[in-house]
Amino acid sequence: METRNPDLALRSRQLFEQLVSWRRDFHRHPELSFQEKRTSETIAAELTKLPLFKVEEKVGGHGVVASIRHGEGPVVGLRADMDALPIQETTTHSFSSRNPGVMHACGHDAHMAVLLGTAQLLHEDAERGRFNGTVKLIFQPAEECCDSKGETGAVKMLQTGRLDDIQKMVGLHMCPWRKSGEVQWHDGPSMANNDEFSIIIHGSGGHAGYPQHVKDPIWMASSLLGALYSLNGRRMDPLEVGTLSIGRVQAGEAGNIIPDRLYLEGTIRSYKESVREQLLEELKQTLTIVTALGGNYDLTVQRGEPALVNDRDINTAIKTAAGSLKLIEEPFGMGSEDFSFYTKTIPGAMFFLGCGLTKEKSLHQSDFDLDEQALPHGVQVLLGSAYELLERGG
């Protein structure tokens, strides 16, 4: 059966007011990772208005999976994430966050609105018999944060087995450095492995006027930091993608007291698994500086998301679905995304959807905002990709 839908761009634009309404409602009521109760209940309530969908709630936490089938064919998954960030919003919109210290500053509110719009058109097309196969809409919790086990929402949803039948998968991410009407794509590694580390340097504290009687952890850290930063440019192949950054250094309570310990936290980003392992090993070796200077240390490494590897064939479907939208081929940068857990086992790809304003707002920024004209483009590309993949078979 022919699944192409030549009026998909027009039908997506006709959803504009509803897409904006959904997005602003989610933005007004953000919830942190693993706390998306109101968000998931709102999504489930909207989906149950569409009787052809089978709606499953509390999948891997607060996750929602909505499946719709017409005839025989492959199973395609479309994913949006639901959680917000621990950021105090500084915008002055009428729909600004009502939850102090919590904000949708990464576009997840838009992701959910786009996927709900996709559900609306999917339901209409199922009623008309316009496609063959199954589409699963995945509203995923906890993309921004992992739990005490180091597991994000993607991991927990995969562990339920509810996604085992998915053969191909597509996700989107809002992109404030691209304008509305632009779609950024990339084959292969496109976002980074993410490993976080923390170090405690142990010395012995004392009076700042008698440094000869102490083992100063701040002095040790001054040598360690330079060595760690040099890993980026001197210990790695410059043609490889990998970086180590320090985000937190904390020690001491007063200027005239040398502390007995120093806390240091950072992150390692890479595209290749071999680079990931090399940087972790170099980190461990570099820490011998501390023992050489008379101190000791504790190192903790939290292995995070793997690199996002986009499937070439899935990207072909995305590019076809984009139609007249402007396509830009470029990696997405050194950020990380737990959509990568899906693409480790399921052929899939993520595209970045342009939503930039005249004054660009960065992701995770307290005044982050987006051009809502991009929302129908998201529906067009997401649903169009699903139809392309259904048409091509398993």
Provide a concise account of the structure shown.
With 394 residues, this protein is of the alpha/beta class. The chain has helices at residues 8-13, 16-28, 37-47, 108-127, 153-159, 217-235, 273-286, 288-292, 312-322, 339-343, 375-392, and strands at residues 54-59, 63-70, 75-81, 133-140, 168-179, 182-185, 188-191, 193-202, 206-207, 242-251, 257-258, 261-270, 296-303, 308-310, 326-329, 348-356. InterPro entries: Amidohydrolase, Bact_exopeptidase_dim_dom, Peptidase_M20, Peptidase_M20_dimer.
What's the arrangement of secondary structure elements?
Layout: H1 8-13, H2 16-28, H3 37-47, E1 54-59, E2 63-70, E3 75-81, H4 108-127, E4 133-140, H5 153-159, E5 168-179, E6 182-185, E7 188-191, E8 193-202, E9 206-207, H6 217-235, E10 242-251, E11 257-258, E12 261-270, H7 273-286, H8 288-292, E13 296-303, E14 308-310, H9 312-322, E15 326-329, H10 339-343, E16 348-356, H11 375-392
Parallel strand pairs: 3-4, 3-5, 5-16, 6-15
Antiparallel strand pairs: 1-2, 2-4, 6-16, 7-14, 8-12, 8-13, 9-11, 10-12
Helix pairs in contact: 2-4, 4-11, 6-7, 9-11
Organism: Halobacillus kuroshimensis
Protein name: Amidohydrolase
Domain Peptidase M20 dimerisation: 196-287
Q: Residue-averaged pLDDT, rounded? A: 96
Q: Provide the CATH superfamily of the largest domain.
A: Zn peptidases
What count of structural domains?
2
Gyration radius, rounded: 24 Å
General shape: elongated
Q: Order of strands across the widest beta sheet? A: 1-2-4-3-5-16-6-15
Q: Give me the secondary-structure category.
A: alpha/beta
Q: So what's the CATH class of the largest domain?
A: Alpha Beta
Relative strand content: 25-35%
Largest sheet: 8 strands, mixed
